[in-house]
Specification:
Two copies of one chain form a homodimer. Chain A is an all-alpha fold. Chain A has two domains: about 160 residues, Farnesyl Diphosphate Synthase (Orthogonal Bundle), CATH 1.10.600.10; about 190 residues, Farnesyl Diphosphate Synthase (Orthogonal Bundle), CATH 1.10.600. Helix content of chain A is about 75%, strand content about 0%. In chain A, strand 1 and strand 2 form a beta hairpin. In chain A, helix 3 runs antiparallel to helix 4, helix 13 runs antiparallel to helix 14 and helix 15 runs antiparallel to helix 16. Chain A is flat, with a radius of gyration of 21 Å. The mean pLDDT of chain A is about 90. The interface between A and B is large, with 58 and 58 residues. Chains A, B: Keywords: Magnesium, Metal-binding, Transferase. Chains A, B: Its cofactor is Mg(2+). Chains A, B: This is Polyprenyl synthetase family protein. Chains A, B: InterPro entries: Isoprenoid_synthase_dom_sf (IPR008949), Polyprenyl_synt (IPR000092), Polyprenyl_synt_CS (IPR033749).
């Protein structure tokens, strides 16, 4: 494999942090500046017309890990991309608005009331409708407005991705279809209560592996003119994505709402056949029995948590996560990345796999 | 204003019908072929992954007037665009998938159970969930799946619009933001019961004028290299769009579900402050009184219909529609369009303004 010829000194951890930090700062400015323009434009028409834009601004201001922009810009810089490139900033901003779109729609589907420590978008509008005593059903109004706010984020994401060169646009388009299909499959498996670790793993690979890590990295590398790095980043992304999803499942099963900034225990409440549960059911008949209720009665979260711990599934999953992190890092050896970047990707992998929210 | 130099004989009504008919046929092939590829691709992963694609195929197969493709291709051919151009076909197909996206989301927001004489997408999945006795709430599942199916139509629309040259992409992007904001404003006005003819007219102009007629025409003319025709098409589109919306309101207020292929009386049931009602309330205090109930009690549809007829509002609106059709046609004189095309646009205007569904 060819080696990266850095077009500029990026040899030290400090330099990496600085270049990427500056770009991530520009990403925030780009997103908020874009939304501020739209806000002003629609405000001129009517205050109500600007409501969905304001909802997106608040959603972004409430936080978020900016994982996809971070991976996109890391892939870009690691591949030797020039630190001053507004198209790379736009690409990273587009990824975060795409994530905004899917989170807003996902929170409706999951009936989730809290996100980033604040009420979800639909929750805000359901409450306002109720408090104002407006016409019609509060739930239908609030969820309808949130669907449109998500749609708007989707439009804006694409407008930010408009300047991407053709090879990067191809990655962008592929990502979007994968994302929506993955969400649907996730929902269908949960509703049908399908216990199929293979299928659950496929969903995890799509949602967390490809969408969160692999595609953003490849998007960045492609913008830097290094599509040849796709294979290495795919290995890294798919392994780390599975670890990411398992951690997500563990946080939901055992984490606290305070730490997560969103309600935990949702997967159990919504009968979501997560990768964690699929593996557990495979390994422990007691878990399988708890999950298997034809009548669609609610699962007993306490019994499930206990079973997951006593059967050693929780510990086994932690071992799996550790192995996946090693596998992710190993897939970058021979990729031509310099030492500092291999360190950085190892650091990112640990951060993602051992996060508390 | 410059006159259109037709690059090929399109002088007769018959020739116009034939060229556009052939292109519209290609649009159907393009949409169904695109969806068939996606269907096969996701079917290979898992039957469930292909469900949203199948839902879109069924939705398109159930009919629809293909108004936006028709206006796009009319604008394209009238501006002298060459009849054999796959990008024009893609643009028209993209417009129909964008419409598919918004109708699926709109049917959820309107709690509508019927569309094109068939159950709406969310209705199909709500029923399946209920019949199969799957886990969780049937409404949340069915509406959640439909939101994702709409999202997927949005992604596919954009993939079909991928090859548009930059000036056409600008029209495309502008359209999408306008569309979503217009939908939101429509919903907000309905919920708050705002009686503001100016605002209701603005929404009608956005949704029906710009989105349905003006932008598709300009998109076509731009693809034909005639962006200079935008002004004439704007005049035509905005006037006809208002007529389109008023007809829509009349169909919902007075039409039968059989003719409409969708439930009528929805605007009343959902307290939608339509342009029709806004004008009526302005003209007749009795109507205003019927609409004005602080408690958000359901409106009495029968009393409203009677008031609309006795107060002469219905007749007045029919006069307004006729004037708007004239205005639309008049805006094309001096546009450099040849006689056959001016006839055709007059025919389209009448078709749109006096349709029964």
């Amino acid at each position: 494999m060819t080696t990266v010829a850095p077009r500029h000194p990026l040899a030290t951890d400090a330099a990496i942090q600085q270049s990427r930090g500056e770009l991530l700062h520009l990403v925030e400015e780009r997103m908020l500046g874009f939304l501020a323009n739209e806000q002003a434009r629609w405000q001129d028409v009517n205050a109500r017309a600007a409501q969905p834009v304001a909802a997106l601004t608040t959603f972004l201001a409430n936080g978020g890990k900016r994982l996809r922009p971070t991976f996109c810009l890391s892939g870009y810089l690691a591949a030797g991309g020039h630190p001053a490139n507004s198209v790379a900033v736009d690409a990273a901003a587009a990824l975060e608005l795409l994530q905004t779109f899917i989170l807003i729609h996902d929170d409706i589907a999951d009936n989730s009331s809290l996100r980033r420590g604040a009420p979800t978008v639909h929750e805000v509008f359901v409450s306002e409708h109720r408090e104002q005593g407006w016409q019609g059903e509060s739930r239908r109004f609030g969820e309808g407005v949130a669907v449109l706010a998500g749609d708007l984020a989707f439009v804006y994401a694409d407008q930010l991705a408009e300047r991407l060169p053709a090879p990067a646009r191809t990655v962008w388009n592929e990502m979007r279809a994968e994302l929506v299909i993955g969400q649907h499959l996730d929902m269908a498996i949960a509703a049908e209560g399908v216990v199929d670790p293979g299928l659950s793993r496929w969903v995890a690979v799509q949602k967390s592996g490809r969408y969160t890590i692999h595609r953003p990295l490849v998007l960045g590398a492609t913008l830097a003119g290094r599509p040849d790095m796709a294979a290495a980043f795919e290995g890294y992304g798919l392994a780390l994505g599975e670890a990411f999803q398992l951690r997500d499942d563990l946080i939901d099963a055992f984490g606290s709402t305070e730490d997560a900034g969103k309600p935990t225990g949702l997967d159990f409440a919504e009968h979501k056949m997560t990768l964690l549960l699929a593996l557990a059911a495979e390994r422990d008949p007691r878990v399988a029995a708890l999950l298997d209720n034809e009548e669609g009665e609610p699962w007993d979260a306490e019994l499930l948590r206990t079973a997951l711990e006593e059967s050693g599934v929780r510990a086994a999953v932690e071992r799996t996560i550790a192995n996946l992190v090693d596998k992710a890092c190993a897939s970058l050896t021979g990729s031509g990345l310099d030492k500092a970047w291999r360190h950085e990707f190892a650091r990112l992998a640990t951060q993602v796999a051992y996060r508390s929210h």
